[in-house]
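User: Can you predict the 3D structure for this chain?
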Amino acid sequence: MTICLLFCCCAAIFYFASCKGDETPKAPAKRQVAVIPKGTTHEFWKTIHAGAVKAGQDYKVDIIWKGPLKEDDREEQIKVVENFVNTGVNGIVLAPLDDTALVPVVQSAVDHQIPVVIIDSDLKSDAYTSFCATDNFKGGQMAGDELARILGDKDAQVLLLRYNEGSASTTNREAGFLDAMSKHKNIKVIDNKQYAGATAESAQAKSENILAPLKKGDGALSIDGIFCPNESSTFGMLRALEDGKFAGKVHFVGFDATPKLVDALQSGEIEALVSQDPFKMGYIGVKTMALALRGEQIEKKIDTGAKLITKANLNDKDVQELIHPPLEKYLKD
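Assistant: Here is the predicted structure, written as structure tokens:
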């Protein structure tokens, strides 16, 4: 009886030990982070995407990139956020199209225990984990100060073409530009109520309408300077100036440094560009989320920087790195 019992015990021990040895330890699943841009067509967002992918690789999180096609489709962006909340992701990195319209869905995500990091453009809420973006007011001031420097002490008239209502990032740039202009009594901003819309095409059409009554009898313009606060408004205005044969004949400062805008800077059609660092912004947005998911302490606001680019510093190493981000390395498709 004793021998039988001992045999049974040994057999049981061997069986369970064998079963345990057969188990293959499963690697923990990577956390999923949804990155939702304002749009997916502009070069700016492609660079954000590349930075996000690199951070995903470095911090071991899976990136899901999805956003509306155009930067004026608030309903589509809201739907994208809602879908990620319903299907479940570990975190959301969001560039809100509207500082008010996106508040309820961000709150919904947080209520579902999904933290949100805001990038690029602010939100009228404090429900998010962190805000990682350019200091847009300061960027607008940089543009205004440079245009004022170019114009000098002579009396001058300048035009501000705004971007789109509800966009906090560009609204702050516009406010920064106007703040800089207010310090120069010789400079008058003749129009600051016109909006370019979300695409380069709408910006070009709006620019043509604004410039038409400003054309003088000799073919020149009656204004001395122009500022546009983002990629699409700057490019749309550039096209209108080129088509009207005004390019290079009016002082023009823009925002963002895409290849076509840099080409215009080199040719003298644009005199300065304030450039964000979208690669860095995408990277820091995802990095911040990854650290938050690990339970690390996160800063509520992180400045991702901006730089004034002119012909004089265009070939500097840091500027070249900024305007030539490694898109092909990180965006395979």
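The longest strand covers residues 187-195. The chain has two domains: 31-134+277-305, 136-275.
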